[in-house]
Design brief:
Radius of gyration: 19 Å
CATH topology: Metallo-beta-lactamase, Chain A
Helix content: 25-40%
Bound molecules: zinc ion
Largest sheet: 7 strands, mixed
Structural class: alpha/beta
Length: 302
């Protein structure tokens, strides 16, 4: 394996799903490691960050990392109370997520570790935790350049575009593709001509912003939580139907798409069917997009 790699530690959305029928894909919630050899960047801190933390303690090599959070829903932070490096004085952890400033990020993370919900508060973390201010703009970490942008998901949620040498990795765990377009489409006829013109403009702007964030990515890790049947009853919940994810990736000239944030109700067979249909859609559109299912413990060389 080359020095630089990406590893999926948690690929589930909503809640962990450690069921026998699901373990081919994996049951842990969102966590992706991007490791350049000298620098370690962790995207989200779902339950997948727990085995990552244990591995880092065993390896006893690195002493510093950066964790970037897309948002503070449980499935993205619930591994932190059990993340052993945070409790070790040997570690420095740079922590970033949505918030006015570093202090607010700290408060948002601390809130889930308070009595009576959890017996140990973030005050007992012995690592040097550096909560980063949004005011610093784009983030730099060693050879990694990290940009972020709000996406369509309840509350403020970021999508991250990460540059490593000549490789672009985009991580968007929770996002409802073309949210506005889909919301408006159902009621379009209720608006007059002038309103429709304005809505058309807003939709075009939305689509352009979405495509820009993922444009030309070598690796796109994107929310693909629902089948069309489930999406029909969960529109507006902030997650994508996999068909929209695949089409957006094709439109944006993405090279490899990893379907991510799998619904906890979907077993391995259901996700295999989603994958097969995705590949069929790609063939029908004459695209050379590579599409894979993000699976726990999958490693991608960078
Ligand atoms: Zn989520
Ligand atoms: Zn969420």
């Amino acid at each position: 394996m080359s020095d630089a790699f990406l590893r999926f530690w948690g690929v589930r959305g909503s809640y962990s799903a450690p069921f026998r029928t699901h373990l081919g894909v994996g049951g842990n919630t969102s966590c992706v490691e991007i490791n350049t050899g000298g620098h370690l960047l962790v995207c989200d801190a779902g339950t997948g960050i727990i085995p990552l933390g244990n591995r880092l303690m065993e390896q006893n090599r690195l002493r510093e990392m950066m964790i970037i959070l897309t948002h503070y829903h449980w499935d993205h932070i619930c591994g932190l109370p059990f993340f052993v490096p945070a409790f070790s004085p040997d570690w420095t952890i740079h922590m970033f997520g949505p918030g006015e400033n570093g202090q607010q990020v700290e408060e948002l993370i601390a809130a889930q570790m308070k009595a009576p919900y959890f017996p140990v508060e973030t005050g007992s973390w012995m690592a040097a935790i550096d909560y980063l201010d949004r005011a610093r703009g784009r983030l730099h970490y060693g050879p990694l350049e990290i940009e972020y942008q709000s996406v369509h998901h309840p509350g403020v949620t970021y999508g991250y575009r990460i540059q490593y040498r000549d490789r672009t990795i985009v991580y968007i765990s929770d996002n409802e593709c073309l949210f506005l377009e889909k919301s408006i489409a159902r009621r379009y006829q209720e608006f007059d001509r002038a309103e429709q013109a304005l809505l058309d403009k807003m939709q075009a702007e939305e689509k352009a912003a979405e495509l820009k964030l993922i444009e030309g990515a070598d690796i796109l890790i994107h929310d693909a939580q629902y089948t069309p049947e489930d999406y029909a009853t969960k529109r507006g919940w902030g997650h994508s139907c996999y068909i929209d994810t695949v089409n957006s990736a094709i439109d944006a000239g993405v090279k490899t798409l990893y379907l991510f944030h799998h619904d906890p109700n979907y077993d391995d067979a259901t996700i295999a069917a989603i994958h097969e249909h995705s590949q069929q859609l790609i063939r029908e559109r004459g695209s050379d997009l590579e599409c894979l299912v993000a699976r726990e413990e999958m490693v991608v060389e960078l």
